[in-house]
Amino acid sequence: MEKRLNERESYFSMSEFLDSYYWASKDDSLGSLLGSVTLWSGDGELFDQAIADDWHTFFSDVSNEDHTVLESFQAVKQFVNEYLPDVTQTTSVSRNLTYRIRMICEMSEAQRDQEPVWQNWVAAVNWITNPNVVPVNESPFLKKGQSLPNPKKKGFRKNQFPVAQVLPAPRPEIPLASDLEKLDLTQSYHAYMKFLSHYQVTDSSRELGDFLQKYSVISEDNQEYRYWRYDFTKGTRKEKEKLLDVLKLFLMIWDYAEIEIRDNALHAQPLRKLTSEIWKAVYMPHNQRVQTEVWQNWLTAVHQATKSTDNQ
What is the pLDDT of residues 70-127, one digit of tens each? Predict the structure, then answer.
């Protein structure tokens, strides 16, 4: 019979899963997050209500029923997308973990079973669903006097879920390309807005429409433009011409998407899909990237922007 987890069991499994990587690496991003994930009030509720509410949203988005092990892992993916996004501000181990979680969710069962991160997740689930494990105070642990087999094994913490034996594999380098079209600051921002406008029609929540209405016009009052200008200027600091190629600009859009429209149930499904498609394209070899729909839409926006600015 396939194992099923309720919302609380899934949450405790995630807590132990993430905790095992923190103790293996002392990663700062994981440590900061776990301060909220594992802190409980005296009445048995999470101290950080926002964490609790988000987890409920992510868990319910996958399924309102008790989850399979994979379904709970898909909820974990939404959680790390929110709290450990694949951006430069997130420390390396956490970014690698988020990358592996996303990739595993795309894999076949046979592929998943070979992944150390998946194996560690299954171990965390088995730990939490062990009838001898009970949640007490800040984290689940075995009853007093009990322990897992092989207590002398490296990384073992007595009466606690073992430290991860294998850290997540490093993310691949982002494949770059040469001899690409380049844009100036004004052209690039217009292309950015036109690219997002292409997806506005699919966003029934109006999330993207509200963003475009607020930030489409270039001005000093436009906060998003100021952010874009800062990143553009940083990217051209070593260049004689203040131009960036279309791939580097695409990476800037990826950074925005990872922060503003993360792939989880806090955002409308079409926007979640867009962020996911951008992320997949970023890590592809360029000869494969150029064949994706999201890249083609980006190039269309680039050509529209350069044409409109040339006519001004």
Answer: 999 999 999 999 999 999 999 999 999 999 999 999 999 999 999 999 999 999 999 9
Other C-beta atoms lying within 10 Å of the C-beta of residue 32? 15
How many degrees, rounded to 5, is the angle at CA 270 between CA 266 and CA 276? 80
Residues 289-311 have pLDDT tens digits of 999 999 999 999 999 999 876 66
Kindly report the length of the chain. 312
- The pTM of this model reads 0.87
Is residue 26 left, alpha or beta, with left meaning phi > 0 and alpha meaning psi from -120 to 50?
left
What is the spatial distance between Cα 18 and Cα 98, in angstroms, rounded to a whole number? 11
Q: Give the CA dihedral 5, 3, 267, 173, nearest 10 degrees.
A: 120
Tell whether the torsion through CA atoms of 43, 74, 268 and 256 is positive or negative: positive
CA distance 264 to 273: 9
Query: Looking at the DSSP assignment, which residues form a beta bridge with residue 134?
Result: 141
